[in-house]
Amino acid sequence: MAGKDKVVLGAMNAQMRRIDLLCKLFGPLFIALIDGASTEVAIIVNFAMNVASIAIEYLAIAEVYYRVPELQRPKSKPREANNAPEPSQEPDSRVAHNWRHAKVFMKKHIADFSLYFQHRAFLPSIAGALLYLTVLNFGGQMVTYLLSAGYNATHVGIARTLSVSFEVLATWVAPWSMNKIGPVRAGLWSSSWQVVMLVVGSIVFCVFEDFPVVSASGLVIGTTLSRVGLRSFDLCIQLIVQEDIEAENRGAFSSVEAAWQNAFELLSYVQTVIFFRPQQFKWPALISVGAVASASLAYTVFVYTRRGHLLHLEKVSTCFGTEKRRQSETERGIRRVTWNDGL
Questions:
Q1: Could you give the C-alpha distances from 108 to 23, 102, 104, in angstroms and in order?
Q2: What pTM value is reported for the model?
Q3: Is 261 helix (H, G, I), strand (E, B) or coil?
Q4: What is the phi/psi pair of residue 150, to 5°?
Q5: How many beta carbons lie within 10 A of that of residue 282, not counting itself?
Q6: CA–CA separation, 114 vs 256, rounded Å?
Q7: Crossing angle, helix 212-244 and helix 153-181, to 10 degrees?
Q8: What is the 3-state secondary structure (H, E, C) of 221-252?
Q9: Is 274 exposed, middle or buried (0-12, 13-18, 19+ CB in 10 A)?
Q10: Tens-digit pLDDT string for the chain (343 aa)
């Protein structure tokens, strides 16, 4: 829809993410207000909204499809019709037929995974998928721990609201940073911010383990601040993948990417199945920080591979060189003044 205009594509991604996050913020709040009056009415309203949204979504999708000619272009050449009559299939031939279909199915999936692992967008994509291996997201696992640590429902609601607010803020920060320094460098800074905030929060969480409320609060603050980096990083990765993936490979690549995202999200739930006691929550939390750090490392390797460097060392050396020249000129001026006074 955006064509080859990177600015428009980045702005459109940010707007879609902003709408998604605002719905996640105001939707539960709206239903919670109704639930305060009547749970039955809240259930009916929720059901009615979901049913009504089906028609609205269908009409919106159809409208976009017919307004954008590029979406109507076939992704591949139509197969030639085979007019030869199919022979009657006996039981043995049916088995062979099904076996051939199974082999074609397996070859297709192997080819898709091979494309994914060998593609230049593999590292940013797998970095984004690794972010799903986390319990530090104010989901059910983290909320359960916070309640056991001494938080009440109001405290959890305030924390979740602040978290989503920071995520919405990222939908403005990410386009601005991408326009200033490009999506690749913006992603590096965003991932670094996310890792630093989570590490600081985890340190407080572990150091003050004997004080549950303080420990949980450190984790809450670190997680909340990290959401700016998370959503900015996500938008940068999304733009990079959209630009790098060829049109004919987009479906296969996206399918494998979604498979990895779902796999890592499933593993995040496996963590709390294994470490199910509130006192053991530090292990899923530390594993989550490790996953985010691994995602940042994978993306750092991608940046170095793509750009050949991580920092502009020549600019840093130039700055230091300029400072040294200024210092030497100042010293020469002082010596000159001192020498003239001596005369």
A1: 37, 10, 6
A2: 0.75
A3: helix
A4: 120, -5
A5: 17
A6: 10
A7: 40
A8: HHHHHHHHHHHHHHHHHHHHHHHHCCHHHHHH
A9: exposed
A10: 656 666 777 677 778 888 887 887 787 777 777 877 888 888 898 899 889 989 898 898 888 888 877 777 766 554 444 444 444 445 557 777 777 778 888 888 888 888 889 888 899 999 999 999 999 988 888 989 998 998 887 888 888 888 888 988 988 898 898 888 888 899 999 999 999 999 999 999 999 988 999 999 999 999 999 999 999 999 899 888 888 888 778 888 888 899 999 999 999 999 989 998 888 999 999 999 999 999 999 999 999 888 777 766 555 455 445 556 666 666 665 666 555 555 5
In sequence order, which residues have a C-beta less than 8 Å from that of residue 6 and are 6 or more positions away?
Answer: 183, 239, 243
Long-range Cβ contact pairs of 260-269 (< 8 A, separation 24 or more): 260/125, 260/126, 260/129, 261/128, 261/129, 261/132, 262/132, 263/129, 264/129, 264/130, 264/131, 264/132, 264/133, 264/291, 265/132, 265/133, 267/133, 268/132, 268/133, 268/134, 268/135, 268/141, 269/141
Residue type at position 106: M
